[in-house]
Design a protein that fits this description.
Shape: elongated
Radius of gyration: 28 Å
Largest sheet: 3 strands, antiparallel
Number of strands: 5
CATH class: Alpha Beta
Helix content: 25-40%
Number of domains: 1
Length: about 140
């Protein structure tokens, strides 16, 4: 059982883990032992997620989510299989936690009268200084 939030917990049967050979640190061991973890989670068919969370998850996950709605997380940061497995699960949980939090609605605001006045005054000032840069009348 992978606990994401107090309200959401994923069953082990929903997670599919494959162990593959990793590149990087590990010496000769890296050629023999499959330490990298490829964690797959079918978000499209998961009963733990509602539709709103699925939509936010699709936007957040980006290329980590396939067209079929499966999230694929590749963990190969550590030398041991157990650490990479834990890392993959934590990254999946963090992604789901981010999708669960509903973004705040943006409130439209209008510029204040003072800010409008300051903007127009600055435009006038800049216009005047640029106008003075022209040729001086009566010099020719």
């Amino acid at each position: 059982m992978l606990s994401v939030t107090p309200a959401i917990a994923l069953d082990e049967s929903e997670l599919d883990e494959r162990f593959v050979r990793a590149s990087g640190p590990g010496g000769q061991n890296v050629n023999k032992v499959a330490t990298a973890v490829e964690l797959r989670f079918d978000a499209a068919r998961s009963p733990a997620l509602d539709d709103a969370v699925r939509e936010r998850l699709r936007a957040i996950a980006g290329r980590r989510m396939t067209d079929a709605g499966v999230i694929v997380i590749d963990a190969r940061r550590f030398r041991t299989q157990a650490q990479n497995r834990e890392d993959a699960r934590e990254r999946l949980a963090a992604l789901l936690r981010q999708a669960v939090t509903r973004p705040k609605r943006r409130r439209k605001t209008k510029p204040t009268a003072g800010s409008k006045e300051r903007r127009v005054a600055e435009k006038r000032r800049r216009s005047e200084s640029k106008r003075r840069r022209g040729r001086v009348a009566g010099d020719e």
